């Protein structure tokens, strides 16, 4: 089966670079799966679970905002924060929720919706771990 | 003739100074390696971000509804200078070179009748600029407690800058930092943050993307992140530069201390010889007199 080159980078380090069969990505407008020969596409991320399927296993990551760039052969996820799911604890997510809650203060009215969405997306992470 | 005992004490003191500078040099070398690794690790993200932003910004910069972070406030009356320096001294000309560049820029702007505001990152630059520009300073970011510089720190700084921009506190923001070229060479650099500028690589092959949500929404979402990334890159470069500068400064100091020890030892040996000769002459002439 055709594979797609998958890279997951955060500002601090490169987390993964593998040949993947499919990648499930939490896009801002909904989840989607990228496979080989996907049409070139650029989308932003919402906080959620990203799962990568390779030949022999499935790896899951928790990501917060960022963006995804997909061309036919490559899928690069640039996440602001990304952690392998195994490393994520309740405290990590509590922190994220605290940050998202704090972000609701002192923002212009047109950004309130986006910030609320971010908060609820982050809260859902609690159910994933 | 210098006192032998005094000379000995001086030689000992220079020797212990040399030990300290040597140790500092080695510590800086180890830290430099780590700082360089951190800078390396951050590069793929920054490059990617830059490429995408250049692509997006190029398309919508001319549009009427371009985000303010990209298009600017339409004025350039108030300038914000973000001066990033180190928290510790003893690193040669590292801090002075940034302070000098920032001061020159501030002076140029003030002479042109603009208003200047300054945010300092790192204690050393603040100390240097405080003398003549203290009334311009609006904030200081203290990173002295930070063991390992993370993206959060950069993102906090960027958030503060954006909040001030939205509150219309300034029109143009520029960050000053040292770009790491090599251990011997760090280049004081200024980078414009707002209005955001992204360099396009010539001849870069850009596939025709499908955007979801729309281009403008993605742009609005990514601009603050891109700004954080730029600040983060600047801080990482600065970290590597600081250790590089300290390493070469301490290498010089160690070498100078060595030279000084050699010189003092020669003086010491000569004086000792002179004292012995003197004593011998006294003994011989005493014996002859008998």
3D architecture notes:
With 129 residues, chain A is α+β, with helices and mostly antiparallel strands. Chain A folds into 2 domains: 81 residues, ATP Synthase, domain 1, CATH 2.60.15.10; 43 residues. A 5-stranded mixed β-sheet of chain A has the order 2-1-9-8-5, with no helix packed on it. In chain A, strands 4-3-6-7-10 form a 5-stranded antiparallel β-sheet. In chain A, a hairpin with a 4-residue loop joins β6 and β7. The mean pLDDT of chain A is 87. Chain B has a single domain, classed as 3-Layer(aba) Sandwich (Pyruvate Kinase, Chain: A, domain 1). Chain B starts with a helix and ends with a helix. With 290 residues, chain B is α/β, with parallel strands linked by helices. Chain B has a 5-stranded mixed β-sheet with strand order 3-2-1-4-5, with helices on both faces. Chain B is built from 6 helices and 6 strands; from the N terminus they run ααβαβαβαβββα. The chains are: A alpha+beta (129), B alpha/beta (290). Chains A and B meet through β5 and β8 of A and α1, α5, β6 and α6 of B. β5 of chain A pairs parallel with β6 of chain B, so a sheet runs across the interface.
Strand-residue fraction of chain B? 5-15%
CATH superfamily of chain B: ATP synthase, F1 complex, gamma subunit
Overall outline of chain A: globular
Average predicted confidence as pLDDT of chain B: 88
Give the number of DSSP strands of chain A: 10
The second-level CATH architecture of chain B is 3-Layer(aba) Sandwich
- Low-pLDDT stretches of chain A are none
Rg of chain B, rounded, reads: 28 Å
Looking at this protein, list some descriptive labels.
heterodimer; A: 129 residues; alpha+beta; ATP Synthase, domain 1; 2 domains; five-stranded antiparallel beta sheet; 2 helices; 23% helix; B: 290 residues; alpha/beta; five-stranded mixed beta sheet; 6 strands; 62% helix; elongated
């Amino acid at each position: 089966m055709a594979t797609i080159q998958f890279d997951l980078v955060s500002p601090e380090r490169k987390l993964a670079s593998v040949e993947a069969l499919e990648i499930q990505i939490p896009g801002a407008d909904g989840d989607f799966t990228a496979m080989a020969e996907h049409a070139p596409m650029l989308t932003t991320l919402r906080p959620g679970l990203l799962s990568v399927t390779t030949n022999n296993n499935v790896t899951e990551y928790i990501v917060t905002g960022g963006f995804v760039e997909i061309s036919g052969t490559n899928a690069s996820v640039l996440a602001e924060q990304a952690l392998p799911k195994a490393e994520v604890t309740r405290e990590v997510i509590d922190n994220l929720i605290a940050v998202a809650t704090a972000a609701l203060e002192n923002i212009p009215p047109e950004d309130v919706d986006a910030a609320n969405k971010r908060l609820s997306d982050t809260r859902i992470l609690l159910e994933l771990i | 003739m210098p006192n032998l005992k005094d000379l000995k004490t001086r030689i000992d003191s220079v020797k212990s100074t040399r030990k300290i500078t040597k140790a500092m040099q080695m510590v800086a070398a180890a830290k430099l390696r780590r700082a360089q690794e951190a800078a390396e690790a951050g590069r793929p993200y920054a490059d990617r971000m830059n490429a995408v932003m250049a692509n997006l910004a190029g398309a919508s910069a001319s549009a009427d509804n371009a985000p303010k972070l990209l298009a600017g406030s339409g004025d350039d009356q108030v300038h914000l200078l973000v001066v990033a320096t180190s928290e510790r001294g003893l690193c040669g000309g590292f801090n002075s070179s940034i302070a000098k560049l920032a001061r020159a820029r501030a002076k140029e702007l003030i002479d042109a009748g603009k208003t200047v505001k300054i945010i300092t990152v790192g204690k050393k630059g603040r100390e240097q600029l405080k003398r003549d520009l203290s009334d311009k300073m609006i904030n200081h970011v203290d990173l002295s407690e930070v063991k390992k510089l993370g993206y959060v720190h950069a993102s906090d700084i960027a958030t503060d800058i954006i909040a001030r921009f939205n509150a219309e506190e300034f029109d143009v923001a520029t960050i000053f930092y040292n770009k790491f070229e090599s251990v011997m060479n760090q280049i004081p650099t200024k980078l414009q943050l707002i209005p955001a500028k992204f360099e396009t690589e010539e001849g870069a092959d850009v596939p025709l993307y499908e955007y979801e949500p729309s281009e403008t929404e993605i742009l609005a979402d990514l601009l603050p992140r891109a700004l954080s990334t730029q600040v983060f890159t600047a801080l990482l470069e600065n970290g590597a530069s600081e250790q590089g500068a300290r390493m070469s400064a301490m290498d010089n100091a160690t070498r100078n201390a060595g030279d000084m020890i050699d010189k003092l030892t020669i003086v010491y040996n000569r004086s000792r010889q002179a004292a012995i000769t003197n004593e011998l002459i006294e003994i011989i002439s005493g014996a002859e007199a008998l």
